[in-house]
């Protein structure tokens, strides 16, 4: 490999490292509490969430309701609603979600479940 090729490879590796480092630094761990997302998620599951970029309907998200800013929830984004999102739990029989509290501000998108509570 030429010197120029090695320099280019080093620059590309450094840039990739910076991007990965930034992603890791902004990622947050979240624990599921309650049955509102059963069967997808269970009480005690551990998740990694990334501060919001692009949210799509169907994404599992971390949100706060405008009507209940003290309540941090894990729900599924259904559709844009008002200035935020309509979010619902996967278990409608026990979920307090937008059907109860209305619009929610999405704070982060869940990217992976890294610990399954029943495993």
From TrEMBL:
GO terms for molecular function: serine-type endopeptidase activity. The keyword Hydrolase applies. It comes from the Bacteria. CDD domains: S26_SPase_I (cd06530). Pfam families: Peptidase_S24. Its main location: membrane. InterPro entries: LexA/Signal_pep-like_sf (IPR036286), Mito_IMP1_subunit (IPR052064), Peptidase_S24_S26A/B/C (IPR015927), Peptidase_S26 (IPR019533). Keywords: Hydrolase, Membrane. GO terms for biological process: signal peptide processing. GO terms for cellular component: endomembrane system. It is found in: Endomembrane system. Residues 27-111 form the Peptidase S24/S26A/S26B/S26C domain. This is Peptidase S24/S26A/S26B/S26C domain-containing protein. It comes from Actinocatenispora rupis.
